[in-house]
C-alpha cells in the first residue's frame, strides 16, 4: 500500500518537473524567436531604406519612393495571386500503393511502432495500478 503511494508520488513529481522544464524551454525559444524576428524585420527595413537612399541619388527622391512602393505592391499582388491559385485546386494525391507482401506472416517482423506502443501501454497500466493501490 505504501509502495504504491511512493510510486505515484515519484511519478507525479517527475511529470511536474518535466512539464516545468518543457515550459521553460518553450518560453525561451519563443522569446528568442521574437527577438530574432524583430531583428530581421529591422534589418529588412534598414536595407530597404538604404536602397531608397541610393535610388534617390540615381533617379530622384519622389521617383525612388514611388518605384519602391510600386515594387512592394507588385510583390504583394503576386503573393495574393499565388495564395488564391493554391487555394482553388485541391491537393488530393492518390494514396501510395501498399508495399508488396513478401514471405509468410510467420517470418515478418512487427512494425517498429508496436514495441514503443507496448512499452507505453505497460507504463500507463502500471501508473494506473499504482494510483489505485495508493487510494486503498
Q: Outline of this structure?
A:
This protein has 136 residues and is mainly alpha-helical. It has helices spanning 2-59, 61-88, 112-135.
Strand-residue proportion: under 5%
How many angstroms separate the termini? 7 Å
Largest sheet geometry: none
Please tally the β strands and state the result.
0
Shape: elongated
Observed structural traits:
single chain; 136 residues; mainly alpha; 3 helices; 81% helix; elongated
Task: Describe the overall structure.
The chain is mostly helical and 136 residues long. It is built from three helices and no strands. It has helices spanning 2-59, 61-88, 112-135. The longest helix has 58 residues, at 2-59.
Question: What are the SSEs and their pairings?
Answer:
Blueprint: H1 2-59, H2 61-88, H3 112-135
